[in-house]
Amino acid sequence: MAKPNAWSQREVELIVSDYIEMLCAEYHGVAYSKTYHRVNLLSKLDNRSPSSIEMKHRNISYALQKLGYRHITGYKPLANVQQCVVQIAELGIAGHPELFVDFKPHVIESSDDSQVLEVFDTFELASRKLNLLRSQPTELSTNADRELLEQAKQLVYTYESSRLMSAGLSQLSARVSMVSESGFHILSYSELGNEIQVLVKVLTREHPDSFNVTADEYFSSKLLDKTFRLYVVFWIDHSPMAVVNHGVLDHCLKLRPNSYTAHL
């Protein structure tokens, strides 16, 4: 079977323009249909299949990630990309500076001698650090999992309190508290004074890619949505780092059920 022809510049310009339109909609919280966009493209391209369009979308995600921009949720970056895709994507995205991502973590200095937590906005931004975690040889931790979690909770508690203090909101900072309710660990606040429920999880060298989520935690994230935050804490060379995610857990993570309740 003959190999398909390389995508022409005209085709790449069409799909990149359509991709950026979807990306802007996603960024601004405007609903859109990936299926509609894909079907609409089929009639404009040179006999491309839906799967080839999907692959090209992932190539565009890779190009944008390399350029330092956001990419569409669900289109995981795929390498082996045509050079013209990078060039055309760079030209197309230049008019949308709001989509550029600052790769520097948030660091808020603490007033005491506690460790400073570096916080990234997405797992993609923390990918270089996480790759270091995965590449390190597995070592048995000297602390039990419970002790690691308690250390992580204290780091996040300090970070949340310092975040509000840095914003000049000392009264709200003083109200940040540890809680024991099911579904979250810390009660914090937004800069507007709204309550935020914070869940804390830990990645270790033994388990650098996964952690357990309970049903209560998942449904808390669905119920609270934008007032729910998940901090995933890990350590590189004893330096604490975290990724913070906002909203429903399965919007930012892949969840796999590992147990079921059977009823007669």
Integer-rounded radius of gyration? 21 Å
Strand-residue fraction? 5-15%
Number of strands: 7
Give the N-terminus to C-terminus distance in angstroms: 54 Å
C-alpha geometry: elongated
Instruction: Label the structural class.
Output: alpha/beta
In the predicted model, the low-confidence regions spanning at least 5 consecutive residues are none
Number of domains: 2
Secondary-structure element order, N to C: HHHHEEHHHEEEHEE
Descriptive account of the structure:
The chain is elongated and about 60 Å long. With 264 residues, it is of the alpha/beta class. The chain has eight helices and seven strands. The termini are far apart. It has a seven-stranded mixed sheet, with helices on both faces. The protein has two domains: 9-99, no CATH class; 106-251, no CATH class. It has helices at residues 9-27, 34-42, 50-67, 83-93, 127-135, 145-166, 170-175, 215-224; strands spanning 106-107, 118-120, 177-178, 186-189, 195-202, 228-236, 239-246. Helix content is 39%, strand content 14%. Strand 6 (228-236) and strand 7 (239-246) form a beta hairpin.
What would you say about this model in short?
The chain is 39% helix and 14% strand. The chain has helices at residues 9-27, 34-42, 50-67, 83-93, 127-135, 145-166, 170-175, 215-224; strands spanning 106-107, 118-120, 177-178, 186-189, 195-202, 228-236, 239-246.
